[in-house]
Every structure is written in C-alpha cells, then in structure tokens.
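WP5 quarterly update. Target: PD(D/E)XK endonuclease domain-containing protein. Source organism: Ktedonobacter racemifer DSM 44963. Length: 119 aa.
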Amino acid sequence: MTRFLQCGYVVLTPYGGSQRYDLVIENAEGQFWRIQCKTGWIEHGAVYFDTANHNVTGKKRDWRHYQGECDYFAVYCADLGQVYLVPVDQVGKTRAHLRIEPSKNNQEKNVRWAKDYEL
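Structure tokens (predicted):
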C-alpha cells in the first residue's frame, strides 16, 4: 500500500474477506484497478511468484487462478526492496517469474524483465 501511495494512487481496501483481491487503486483520471498482493522470491536469476492460491482438502490440492477476478498482481520482493505491478492476463495460471539476470542461454524473446514492471 505504501508504494502505491508514494506513487500518487488512492488506495482502497475491501470490507469483508471474500473478495479475490487485496486492495483497489485509483489513479488521477479516476480509473480503478483490483490488486492481488503477492510475495516474490529470487531463484535462478528471476523473481518468482504464485499466480494462484491453493486450497488443500485432505490429499487434494486445487489451484485457483485470479484471471477475471483481479486486474494486477503487486509483487513485493523483500530481497530487492522492490514492488512490481504485473497484469494478471500476462502471466500463467499457477506461477510466473520476472527476469533480473539474463538466462543462461541468453534468450531474449518472450522474456519478462523485472525492470519493465517496477512500480
């Protein structure tokens, strides 16, 4: 929330607990976006984060993605002290990553660079 406020957004929090988003932001033009907050971690030169939550019932594990239920992921990576704003419809349905280092094979095509999503 703090980073959104520093960037000049109005931040709203939903009442109750049944929404599939953690907060709503409003920009200067009056547009609203639903935000799901996620924690990112560093592995293999990238910031990884879950794009679904899992409900565990007994031995069954169901993944529920957020597509259509929120607009952006706000991914906080404590190791970098950075927040990334990632559109929900640009990532997969269970996990995603943002590159912070070049891949070992130097692939550039279809790479999501973390710097492009910094808030």
